[in-house]
Fold this sequence. Notes:
Radius of gyration: 22 Å
Distance between the termini: 35 Å
Largest sheet: none
Structural class: mainly alpha
Helix content: 55-70%
Strand content: under 5%
Number of helices: 7
Amino acid sequence: MPKKKLKKWFPTQETIQNHKSLRFLGKLLHDPNLFHLNRKSASRAFFIGLFCAFIPMPFQMALAMFMAIWFHANAPISVGLVWITNPLTMPPIFYFNYWVGTLLLNRPAQEFSNDWGSEAFWSELISVWQPLYLGSLVSAIVFGALGYYIIQAIWRSHVRTAWKKRLLKRKSQLTDSHQ
C-alpha cells in the first residue's frame, strides 16, 4: 500500500486530539487504530466510510467518526470516504438508492416535480422515504462490503508482491555472493 503517500494527506493523531471541536471526545481519540494504517483498520474504514456515504442523513461525517471509534477503524479514511456523496454526486447516488428500494418493495418509481418549495418537498419526501431508506441501507451494506473486501484483496496482493520481490532479491544476492 502507498502508506507514505496516504500519511502525507492525513492529519496527525496529535492534530485531531488537539482540535477544539473534537476535545469533547477526550480519551476516545487515543486508540492507535484510529490513525494507524494497517490492513484491518483500513478495510474497516472503507466499510464505515462507504456505509455512511450511502445513508441520506445529516452529519454523516460525525456518524463515520463515531463508528470508526467504535469499530477501531482508521478515522481519516472513514470520514474522508463520506465525501463520496457531495453536492454533485448526491442526486444520482440517492436516486439509485431510491430505485433499488422501489425494486425491493416492488413499487413503481414515481416522477418528481420541479417545484422545490417546502410544501412540495415534504409531500414528496413522505411518499419516497420508505424505498429511499431501504435502498440506501441495502446499497450501504453492499458497497461497504465491496470496499472492505477490495481493500483486503489489494492489501494482501501488495504484501504478496513485496514478499516475492524481497525473496528474489535475496536469492540474487546469495547467487552473486557465491560467484
